[in-house]
Structure formats: C-alpha cells, structure tokens
Amino acid sequence: MSMSEGKYGTVHSFDHPFLQATGMFLGELSCLAAFKLLLIYYNRRRLPGGVNVKLPASIDGNRNFNPLIFLLPAMCDMLGTSVMYIGLNMTNASSFQMFRGAVIIFTGLMSVAFLNRKLKIKDWLGIFMVIIGLIIVGLADSLYSSSEDKSRNSVITGDLLIVCGQVITATQMVVEEKFITKHNVAPLQAVGWEGLFGFTTLTLLQIPMYYIPVGNTIFKNPDGNLEDAIDGFYQIGNNWQVAMGVLGTVVSIAFFNFAGISITKEISATTRMVLDSVRTLVIWVFSMTIGWESFVWIQLVGFIVLLGGMWLYNDNTLEAFLIKKGFIKPDDDSHLSLTQEEIPPDTNEEKGTSINTNGSLPL
C-alpha cells in the first residue's frame, strides 16, 4: 500500500476506498464521451454513393430511452464497488481478483429466482467448482497470510467483504437484464450513463461522509471519519506513485470497459472471461514479483479450480461436444443419456449478457 503525506503533514497509507470508487466511475463516465466521439465520427463517414457506414456494435443501439433506467444499476454498482474497495484495502490484490469470481454463484442463483432461467448441469457443476475454488483460496489466506501490514483477521474480513460485494454486483446484473436489456441501448452508452450517475452520487455522498466518525479500526483517515477526500487529494499531490495509481485506475477502467464490450460483442463472452482470468494471473505474479505476496501452492490450486468452474459455466464447448457425440440430447438439461436422434446444426443457447460496469464479466 503506497505511503504519502496527508493534510496534516504525517505520512500514512493511502486508504480511501470511496475516493477510489469515484475514480472508477470517472473511468466509466469517460465511456460516454467516447460514445459521443465515435458516433460523430461514424455519422460523418460515407460510403460511395452517400451511404452511411454501419455503426460498430459498441455504439449501435436504441437512443430513445429514459436515462433514469440506469439509476438503480448505478446505485448497485456504487455500493458493490465501494464495499469491494474497502475489502481490497484489507486483503491482498490477488485474493481480491480471485474472490470476484464469486459473482458466478450469486448471478446464477438470482437468474433462477428472478429471471426464471433454467441452469444446465454444466452450469451447476461450474458453480460448485467456483465455490470449492473460493474455499481453497480463503483457506490459503487464513493459513498463509504473508502481508506484514495486514493481520490475518483483516485479510479474512476483507475477503468476506469482497464476497458481499459480489452479491450486490449480481443484483446489478439481474436488474440490468430484467429492466434494461429490452431497451437495446448501445453498450458503451450504457456504461457511460451508469458512470455518470455513480460519479455524481458518490461525489456528493463524500460530503456527509467527511462528518461521520467511525474510528480507525477499518478506515485509516487521520480524523477517524468515514471518508476524507481532502486528505486523499493531499496524498495524491504529494506522491507521484499514488497519483499514477489513481490515474491508472481511471484509465484502465475506461479501457477495460471499452475493450471488454468490443470483445464480448464481436467475439464471445468466453474470450473475455479468459482475458479476465489472465488479468488475475498477471496481478498475482506481479504481487509476488515485487514482494507484496509470497507464493502459496494451495492458492494456486484454488485458482485453477476457480478457473475451471468459470470456464465450465461460461463455455458451451463441452456441451456441444457431448451433443455431437450423442451423449446428451439437444436442450436436455436434466440428465446425460445416450441418444441416436438427429442433432441439429446449432444447439447452443445464449445465456444473455448484462452490462457489468466494474470491468468484470457477467459470469
């Protein structure tokens, strides 16, 4: 955790989860500017004969909608992200990334309860593997907490907060799919509107947060308040590493949402899931390289099991293979049985995707 001089001239760790979440929403808000610029660019282009150029999938969609439809998902995003950033300040970066995989569990269960979706055998098996993987990762954190500035209780509490954040993220996904998907809004525009609502709301909330005393057990602000944005800006201005970290968050969120939407629309959600998994691996290796964490073999096992569950839940390759070989019937979710029936050429079902603006997949 970067150390920097605060508003009272004392050097302490940069621990401002709500300010960090505001930076994330600023990154999402920039997607709205990108949407407008791309829309102007493509509308001015003409093919021979004066025909308009076809818009890319990231900006193509209905523009006649009430922006307030994004208010509720933005509030879910704001709450979930803030809780996760609090957890991140208490645990390790690699654990933060891995525990975000818990969103699969809650999204799957909520989609059954509120969207009347019927999960297939492979989906349930994927959820089960994710649970096992998370238990292993949590066990590694509780047994081999290697960070000198974080106690074991702090790490475990941080992990639990991250999992709680995934419940809120899953709620956001279900709300988006139930109430927003039908409007067919351009993905980049949707991310931008949620960023606008989240940025505005959280910025305003930091005013009363400054006057709410909570002590220094979880939050480390110099006056013991819930959030001290003034102290945070002092620390950003006094340490270029902190400033680059905050700026990197804004830029990476903007780029990840833009690139993620493009990949999901143009290729597949599975490809985006693989890239998201690579991000987790890179963060883990980087944390070990610079000495933030040490290698724990049981965490590697948990990561592999977690990856397997994510792949099983998101990918239809296994199902298509079993159908092709005649082990299961098309659209048969209840059992594995031999069949000699004709297999139609296209049997894959779309789970449906929602726009998850915190840079992770709707797993």
Any chance you could write out the topology, listing elements then pairs?
Elements (H helix, E strand, L loop, with lengths): L2 E3 L5 E3 L3 H28 L1 E2 L3 E2 L18 H18 L4 H7 L3 H12 L6 H23 L8 H28 L7 H23 L19 H10 L1 H27 L2 H21 L7 H18 L2 H8 L39
Antiparallel strand pairs: 1-2, 3-4
Helix pairs in contact: 1-2, 1-7, 1-9, 2-6, 2-7, 3-10, 4-6, 5-6, 5-11, 8-9, 9-10, 10-11
Count, helices: 12
Termini Cα gap: 29 Å
Q: Estimate the mean pLDDT confidence.
A: 79
Strand order of the largest sheet: 1-2
> What class do helices, strands and sheet pairing give?
mainly alpha
Could you describe the largest sheet, including whether it forms a barrel?
2 strands, antiparallel
Report the principal-axis shape: globular
Low-confidence parts: 332-355, 357-363
Percent strand equals under 5%
H/E topology pattern: EEHEEHHHHHHHHHHH
Radius of gyration (Å): 22 Å
Can you describe what's shown?
This protein has 363 residues and is an all-alpha fold. 61% of the residues lie in helices and 3% in strands. The chain has twelve helices and four strands, in the order ββαββααααααααααα. It has a two-stranded antiparallel ribbon with strand order 1-2. It has a two-stranded antiparallel ribbon with strand order 3-4. Helix 8 packs across helix 9 (240-266). The relative contact order is 0.19.
